[in-house]
Design goal:
The complex is a heterodimer of chains A (about 240) and B (about 425). The relative contact order of chain A is 0.14. Chain A is built from 10 helices and 5 strands. Chain A is α/β, with parallel strands linked by helices and about 240 residues long. In chain A, strands 2-1-3-4-5 form a 5-stranded parallel sheet, sandwiched between helices. Helices cover about 35% and strands about 10% of the residues of chain A. Chain B has a single domain (about 35-415), classed as Orthogonal Bundle (Cytochrome-c3 Hydrogenase, chain B). Chain B has 13 helices and 14 strands. Chain B has helices at about 40-45, 50-55, 65-80, 85-115, 125-150, 170-180, 185-195, 265-270, 280-285, 300-325, 370-385, 395-410, 415, and strands spanning about 1-5, 15-20, 25-35, 160, 165, 205-210, 225, 230-235, 240-245, 255, 260, 340-345, 350-355, 365-370. In chain B, α7 (about 185-195) packs antiparallel against α10 (about 300-325). The chains are: A alpha/beta (about 240), B alpha+beta (about 425). The interface between A and B is large, with 60 and 67 residues.
């Protein structure tokens, strides 16, 4: 039996849906595994019960909450697709600004209120059965999660940090270039794509389950970096929501 | 009769379409932009210049490369950083990849179903399977161009202030060049496909804004030109473009002193037609596209002509890069403050980013002007112009036509709502 699948987007950039659409080589195989019956970005129509719903983006305000709850009601499985859905990603950075200042700065004084509440992760609104982390998601990992769901297994994410994938790829250590890197504590699964591209790990996939903080602290010290340097970097994609979260 | 379509499909982002019509007279016509704002301009404040491009790329998945490239250009101009010829060519190639990827996604996945009487490209009977496999094969070239140059198709990794942190392998560029040449039969098939589309008639000429064709067909540059009047330098864009809020949208609208205007493929064709490659010019001729084409439904044709153009340009760029040879470049040391605006032709049109940095290289002011937001007023004007001719047709047919019209612009609503910094002049909501 093919899975009836839907793709849904909330507050975000739709880059994770696009990453799925960028799986050109796997697309026809994918069509053998799932029936995509709802995907607003590239399809008209939809509705009805689903085996699996992939939800992209953060949830802002009552309208989006209601839409998400409707999707949850008619879906056997619900997957948070990408950082905005999984952890609120960079959307949560609005919390660093005083709401009134934020509003005045962007819309001008006196403009009618257009914000519809602070962004929340999908899992803060409805139960989530599986997650695909990352900003954007990794296409290969999306396929692995989907395959697990199709055969009735609970998908498992790598339990080791990005550092492991970086070492396996024999890439030079970012710290040795004099840069901050979150690779030692962030969940692998991306193939260390950013270090491979000459950048550093900015932590878009979130913390690994049991980060080795003591050895990480030692690495930081050895390179003349502080915990504050690390946290400044970490907050870009992982600012703790607090409050509602 | 009221036509109301909630959550328009086959566009990027969320918008509702509302049209009230009474005996051919349009009494109300709104494209309601209901995407949640994400306050990027405020989020950027205080961030170091090295983090700005990775942040703004998250404004939009489908044009993340354009946001990255224009962001780097603005930062470099503000901080006085010069880039090499190699960097300029690689950036053009990356922009090329994104235009191909985005345009082909639109042509096949979003627009074609309208003209083939389908809800999506996915139903897989035999005839349509060929269509889908061709669409995927062509789109993949754009995706791979972005992957090879930018390190990842969505939210690129390698472009940084002053250059690139990693370079493509010559073998990867050679393989891409081969595929760009091999795609020509697919391009011919696409020209046949689009040539068979029955575009509804609608002549509404509008002012067209784009970057100047100073350095070939509009892509990057320092001058904004208009089809209806004098242009401006990019840094002085506010002398030409005025932004305003309306009550029914979380995105800003825009106009020139003469009214609503178009940006994007049709505007670039209007201002840059003479700079098209020979093959693209021939395709334009075959499909009846001229600098004076005013029918917004035919933006789809302009998009295809641009695909042909950028396929040819990509081949030339790869040749240039390979002949010159790729050399790693050390990271630049930039510092101090400054303020600048830069522009790029994103797939959907003119995109501007401006930043000011303090002495520590932290953002103290940021502003962006998004193509789809600039097109919103024009889309509404087109809808108003289209309705009278549809009088007497059924609700379903009118709705379908109007949706097709909105879709022709390939609106990216996700993008349009994420950057708002405007003078408030909205109707009804006095400050």
């Amino acid at each position: 039996m093919k899975l009836r699948a839907g793709f849904f987007d909330f507050t975000g950039c739709e880059g994770c849906q696009l990453t799925v659409l960028n799986l050109e080589d796997e697309f026809l195989d994918l069509a053998g595994l799932i029936d995509v019956v709802e995907f607003r970005e590239v399809m008209t129509g939809g509705g009805g019960d689903l085996d699996v719903a992939f939800v992209e983006g953060s949830i802002c305000g009552p309208d989006q909450e209601a839409r998400l709850k409707d999707i949850r009601r008619r879906s056997r499985l619900l997957v948070a697709l990408g950082a905005c859905a999984d952890t609120t990603g960079i959307n949560i950075l609005v919390r660093l600004q005083d709401p009134e200042v934020l509003h005045g700065r962007v819309y001008g004084p006196g403009a009618p209120v257009r914000a519809r509440g602070h962004p929340r992760a999908v899992g803060d609104v409805v139960p989530v059965d599986a997650r695909v982390p990352g900003c954007p998601v990794d296409g290969g990992e999306f396929l692995r999660v989907l395959q697990a769901l199709a055969v009735g297994r609970t998908p498992e994410l790598p339990a080791h940090p990005v550092c492991v994938e970086c070492k396996l790829a024999e890439l030079p250590c970012v710290f040795d270039e004099g840069e901050m890197c979150l690779g030692p504590v962030v969940r692998a699964g991306c193939g260390a794509r950013c270090p491979e591209g000459g950048d550093r790990c900015r932590g878009c996939r979130g913390l690994v389950d049991n980060p080795r903080s003591s050895s990480y602290r030692r690495v930081l010290e050895e390179h003349g970096l502080t915990e504050d340097d690390m946290l400044a970097e970490f907050r870009l994609f992982n600012l703790d929501g607090g409050g509602e979260r | 009769m009221r036509i109301e379509v909630r959550h328009l499909t086959r566009i990027e982002g969320h918008a509702h379409l509302v049209v009230d019509e009474d005996r051919g007279e349009v009494t109300e016509c709104r494209l309601e932009i209901v995407e949640t704002p994400r306050f990027f301009e405020a989020i950027l404040l205080g961030h170091h210049f090295r983090d700005v491009a990775p942040l703004v790329s998250r404004i939009c998945g489908v044009c993340s490369n354009s946001h990255t490239l224009v962001s780097l250009a603005a930062t470099e101009a503000a901080l006085g950083v010069e880039v090499s010829e190699q960097t300029r060519d690689l950036r053009r190639l990356l922009a090329c990849g994104e235009i191909l990827q985005s345009h082909l996604l639109h042509l096949y996945f979003m627009a074609a179903p309208d003209y083939l009487g389908m809800d999506s490209i996915f139903p897989l009977d035999r005839r349509r399977r060929d269509l889908l496999t061709r669409a995927l094969r062509m789109k993949k070239i754009g995706t791979d161009l972005c992957r090879v140059v930018g390190g990842r198709p969505v939210h690129p990794v390698t472009p940084r202030v002053g250059g690139f942190s990693a370079l493509p392998e010559p073998s990867e560029l050679r393989a891409l060049r081969r595929r760009l040449v091999e795609v020509l039969p697919d391009l011919e098939a696409t020209v046949d496909l689009v040539g068979g589309f029955d575009f509804p008639p609608l002549d509404r000429s509008a002012e067209c804004l784009s970057l100047a064709a100073d350095d070939g067909y509009p892509l990057m540059g320092d001058r904004i030109v208009s089809s209806a009047g004098p242009g401006v330098r990019v840094g002085d864009y506010r002398g030409l473009i005025e932004e305003y809020l309306v009550d029914h949208a979380t995105a800003k609208f825009a106009s020139t002193p003469r009214g609503p205007y178009r940006v994007g493929p049709l505007a670039r064709i209007a201002n840059g037609f003479a700079a098209l490659t020979p093959m693209a010019a021939r395709v334009a001729g075959a499909l009846g596209l001229t600098p004076d084409t005013a029918n917004p439904y035919r933006i789809v044709v302009a998009r295809l002509v641009e695909v042909v153009h950028w396929v040819e340009e990509a081949i030339l760029l790869i040749d240039t890069l390979l002949i010159r040879g790729l050399r790693p470049e050390p990271p630049v040391k930039a510092g101090g403050g400054g303020r600048a605006v830069a522009a790029i032709e994103a797939p959907r049109g003119l995109l501007l980013h401006g930043y000011e940095y303090d002495g520590r290289g932290r953002v103290v002011w940021a502003e962006c002007v998004i193509p789809t937001a600039q097109n919103l007023a024009s889309i509404e004007a087109d809808l108003r112009a289209a309705v009278p001719a549809l009088q007497g047709r059924g609700r379903g047919e009118i709705t379908r036509r109007l949706e097709t019209l909105v879709r022709a612009y390939d609106p990216c609503v996700s993008c349009a709502t994420h950057l708002l910094k405007v003078r408030f002049t909205g109707r009804g909501g006095a400050p």
